[in-house]
Amino acid sequence: MYRQMRMWRHDYRNHLQTMKALDTPIKSGNAMADAILSSKMSLAQAPGIDVRVDAHTHIPIKQRISELDLCCVLGNLFDNAIEANDGLPEADRMIRVYMDMKGTQLYISFTNASSGGKQRKVGGRFRTTKSDEGHGFGLVHIDQIIEAAGGYLSRNFEDGASTTEILLPQS
């Protein structure tokens, strides 16, 4: 129960940001997804991260995950991408987000610059490398949401870049 409360608290700020940013330049057909992407895009651009979001697709209404879970996934991926750019020279900072329909599945891709630190796997899943409290819930929550929806998730770390790809089937 305590762990679930900490997970919820971890994602709560994403939900608040989503509600604040309903008028957005991103038009995916899902107002909550547009709001979280626009809000996080603004947060990422403030410290000089080059951000490009291509999410001008129509997100189907009949997804196997709720809008809230979709926003948790997008918010956590964006938060991780922003943190991965910390400490990099401004010229190297970047985040690329791409969303589109691949047949009957929603495809989501996040690529970001990274310092190339060693990634930690526990039980076949990537885990946070940060030791301070409040970290480590995002990756776990993303994994749980995608698994529950019967989706596919892939994480790849290569030469200064990290990519997460997700496929989500429709209902």
UniProtKB/TrEMBL annotation:
Key words of the record: Kinase, Transferase
Domain Sensor histidine kinase NatK-like C-terminal stretches: 68-169
Presence of the UniProt keyword Transferase in the record: yes
Pfam family, one: HATPase_c_5
Stored InterPro entries: HATPase_C_sf, NatK-like_C
Gene3D superfamilies hit by this protein: Histidine kinase-like ATPase, C-terminal domain
MF terms (GO), sorted A to Z: identical protein binding; kinase activity
Domain of life according to the entry: Bacteria
Protein known as: Sensor histidine kinase
